[in-house]
Amino acid sequence: MSHIVTISTRITNPAAVAAACRRLLLPEPVLGTAKLYSGEATGLLVQLPAWRYPAVIDAQTGNIAYDNFEGAWGEMRELHRFLQSYVVEVVRMQARQRGMAVTEQQFADGSIKLSIQEG
Fold it and tell me: Which domain holds residue 80?
């Protein structure tokens, strides 16, 4: 049986953040405070490719603080790739905890299909 799922993402799992960074070959996230153009933010610092400032994840609230100056200091597609990888890693972790197997298929357009099977 197949299902289509729509996901609204809140970033609350630090282990999945780290796994998403490894998946995308990004530096490991570190807990800290980052100076953004218009202030500071504290949380898990994720350095996205070609971004001037890191994305700062508050795992308590699930919110992400970032400043990319409408694309001039970093392309949104990099944040979207990170969010997609985060969701994939959360699904994989939760499926494994329930004893399920996950297979992954990546498509040329960047989309990813996950198939989850019991046992």
Answer: 14-118
Token pair for residue 78? 């990099």
Residue 51 lies in a domain: yes
**Are the C-beta atoms of 102 and 83 separated by less than 8 Å?**
no
Dist CA 65 CA 71 (whole Å): 15
Two tokens at 116?
A: 């989850």
Question: Is residue 35 a part of any domain in this protein?
Answer: yes
Residues 15 and 23: beta-carbon distance below 8 Å: no
State how many domains the chain has. Answer: 1
Taking only the tens place, the pLDDT of each residue in 16-37 is 999 999 999 999 999 999 999 8
Q: How far apart are CA 69 and CA 56, in angstroms?
A: 15
Q: Burial-class residue 24 by CB neighbours within 10 Å (0-12, 13-18, 19+).
A: middle
pTM for this entry = 0.89
